[in-house]
């Protein structure tokens, strides 16, 4: 029923916001489940649908969400044919976690912890110790990695337990702080081409009686950001990575399980004023705001001292029909960042958290010119961003 014109807008109910399946079906649950099946001490199988294997390989394709695979059977025939195998043959996806963005998701994968514990709660987040905005993907400004994320990775614990452990990725990622805090442990093997990565991953998988191997490909996400998921460039990447996945699957040694997943999906946002709300040009949204963090579809809003309630009220009034707008405590209580929040992480979360519901983003044309020019984006709780595959091939 249409809302009468004289009534005030009704904000989206926080109770209706989807919450990631932490503890049973999120990215953070994948490696603990695989490690438990390999009898690594301290781990419990969190995703009950998965069957243990002696040799496990995770191939993470950046930006290739569940809905993108479903919608592109012609570009990705091999991946599409594996949809019924997802999540242990249930044909269901996993959830990325919130926000559905690379730094957060890779930390969730590698540590086996939700964002509220590993402490990378977005693309950018405030460092409570310095008051500065910290880019957790590019690690700027420099912050001591082990202070920011002190937990061991699943790879480190598996390696210590005698599991043959390796990461196969682009050489440029070997020494990055994000790799150190999220994906380190065992051997890092840098390979430039996707084909070489698949071949080396298969070799490393065969190198141990118990093996845990991770490999990664980024350019589906890169082309999506630049050109959108409706572009020929993006579709070309879909076709290429489909071939990579088949190449790896055909080389699996005995007693192996290959899991093909992603860190998030992606949505294209039109370039018009209704779809792109420019924080840097909006006096209402910027009033009382000291720092704007996160990214276009998952914003951390840090208020000047004493202005938290006013900022929450204004953001809810202006954007509440298009975004789920929560205070920090409301977002924490709703479980957006996981069932528990470490004390060191609490202050990294915005005083106000805005998660997009509609096809809209909050840009910052002055302070974030590169990000504001992206066609394809992600970060929020909607299915197109949140749902990721867990496709399975066994030998």
Describe the structure.
This protein has 395 residues and is of the alpha/beta class. Helices cover 33% and strands 19% of the residues. The protein has 18 helices and 18 strands. It has helices spanning 30-37, 66-71, 77-81, 86-89, 102-111, 115-118, 145-148, 154-160, 177-182, 194-206, 219-227, 232-249, 283-286, 308-319, 328-334, 343-346, 369-372, 383-386, and strands at 55-61, 94-95, 124-126, 133-135, 164-169, 187-190, 211-217, 256-261, 267-268, 276-278, 289-295, 298-303, 323-327, 352-356, 361-363, 376-377, 387-388, 391-394. It has a 6-stranded mixed sheet with strand order 6-5-7-1-8-18, sandwiched between helices. Strand 11 and strand 12 (298-303) form a beta hairpin. The longest helix has 18 residues, at 232-249. It is globular, with a radius of gyration of 21 Å. The relative contact order is 0.20.
Tags for this model:
alpha/beta; 33% helix; 18 helices; 6-stranded mixed sheet; globular
Distance between the termini: 54 Å
Tally of strands: 18
| Order of strands, widest sheet | 6-5-7-1-8-18
Q: Determine the number of helices (DSSP H or I, runs of at least 4 residues).
A: 18
Q: What is the residue-mean pLDDT, rounded to a whole number?
A: 96
Strand content: 15-25%
The dominant shape is globular
Structural class, judged by helices and strands? alpha/beta
């Amino acid at each position: 029923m249409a809302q009468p014109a004289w009534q005030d807008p009704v904000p989206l109910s926080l109770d209706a916001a989807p919450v990631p399946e932490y503890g049973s079906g999120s990215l953070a649950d994948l490696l603990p489940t695989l490690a438990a099946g390999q009898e690594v001490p301290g781990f419990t199988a969190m995703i009950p649908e998965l069957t243990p294997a002696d040799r496990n390989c995770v191939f993470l394709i950046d930006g290739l969400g569940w809905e993108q695979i479903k919608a592109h059977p012609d570009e990705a025939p091999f991946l599409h044919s594996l949809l019924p195998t997802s999540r242990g043959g249930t044909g269901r996806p996993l959830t990325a976690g919130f926000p559905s963005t690379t730094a957060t998701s890779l930390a969730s994968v590698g540590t086996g912890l939700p964002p509220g514990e590993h402490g990378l709660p977005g693309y950018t987040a405030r460092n409570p110790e310095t008051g500065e905005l910290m880019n957790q993907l590019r690690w700027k400004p420099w912050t001591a990695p082990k202070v920011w994320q002190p937990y061991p990775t699943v790879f480190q614990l598996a390696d210590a337990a005698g599991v043959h452990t390796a990461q196969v990725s682009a050489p440029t990622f070997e020494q990055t702080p994000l790799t150190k805090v999220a994906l380190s442990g065992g051997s890092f093997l840098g390979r430039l081409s996707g084909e070489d990565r698949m071949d080396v991953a298969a070799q490393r998988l065969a190198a141990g009686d118990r093996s845990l191997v991770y490999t990664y490909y980024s350019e589906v996400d890169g082309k999506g950001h630049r050109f959108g998921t409706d572009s020929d460039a993006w579709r070309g990447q879909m076709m290429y990575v489909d071939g990579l996945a088949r190449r790896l699957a055909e080389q699996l040694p005995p007693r192996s399980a290959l899991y093909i997943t992603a860190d998030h999906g992606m949505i294209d946002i039109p370039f018009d004023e209704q779809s792109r709300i420019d924080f840097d040009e909006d006096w209402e949204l910027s009033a009382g705001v000291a720092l704007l963090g996160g990214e276009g579809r998952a914003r951390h809003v840090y208020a000047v001292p004493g202005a938290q309630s006013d900022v929450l009220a204004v953001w809810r009034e202006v954007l509440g029909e298009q975004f789920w707008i929560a205070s920090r405590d409301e977002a924490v209580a709703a479980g957006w960042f996981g069932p528990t929040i470490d004390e060191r992480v609490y202050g990294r979360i915005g005083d106000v958290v805005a998660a997009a519901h509609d096809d809209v983003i909050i840009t910052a044309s002055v302070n974030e010119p590169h990000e504001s020019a992206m066609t394809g984006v992600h970060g929020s709780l909607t299915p197109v961003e949140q749902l990721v595959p867990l496709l399975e091939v066994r030998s």
